[in-house]
Amino acid sequence: MGDSLKTLFGWFPVLRKLFQAKNAEEFDDFLDRHFEECVQRMEAEAHHLTSDSEEKLSAFLAAALSVPGLAVIREGYSNGRVDLTIKSESMTFPQRRLAEAKIYAGPDYHERAIEQLISRYSTGRQSRGYVVEYIKKPGIAALVLKLRKRADADLPARQHGETFDHRMKWAYASNHWHSSEELIHVVHINVNLHR
To answer: Total domain count for the chain?
Structure first.
C-alpha cells in the first residue's frame, strides 16, 4: 500500500499539468516537458537499450510516456501504422499527436521520417507532430547540427523556413506545409543512446 501511494503521489505534478491544459498550446507545453523527462529516463538506461531494435525502443518510450489521462498507442493506424499515437483522455479537451521514431541512420533516413509523418500519417488536423531519433553513435550534438544545417539548405517535406531552437537539449523544431495547406509544427527529439 505504501508503494502504491508513493507512486500515486509521484504522478500528481504530471497529472495536474496534463489536466490543467485548457488549449492546444498548454497541452503541447505539457507534452514537450513530459517527453523531455521520458527521454532523460531512456538516456539514463542507455546501457540496457543500446542493442535494442527500433520497436523495443519505441515500446520503452511509449511505456514511459503513458500516464493516467494520457494514452500512448504503438503502431496505431492513421493512414498507415504510425509509431506512436499520443492521446489525451480528456472528455472536455481531447488532443492527439503523432510521432514517428527511427534509429538514426543518416540525414536521408531522418528526412524520410519527416515525410512519413507529414505526408502519410498526418491528416492535417493536428498542428504538431514529433520525429524521435534514437542515436546510438557518438557525437549527438554534432549530428543534430548536421541535421539542422541540411534541413535549412534542403527544406525537406515542404519545410517552411529554417529550423529553430527548442527548449529541450538536442531537440529542434521546424514547420511543414501539409497537403491540406495547414502548417504542422514538428519537434525533432534526439535521444542519446551511445555508451
So the answer is: 1
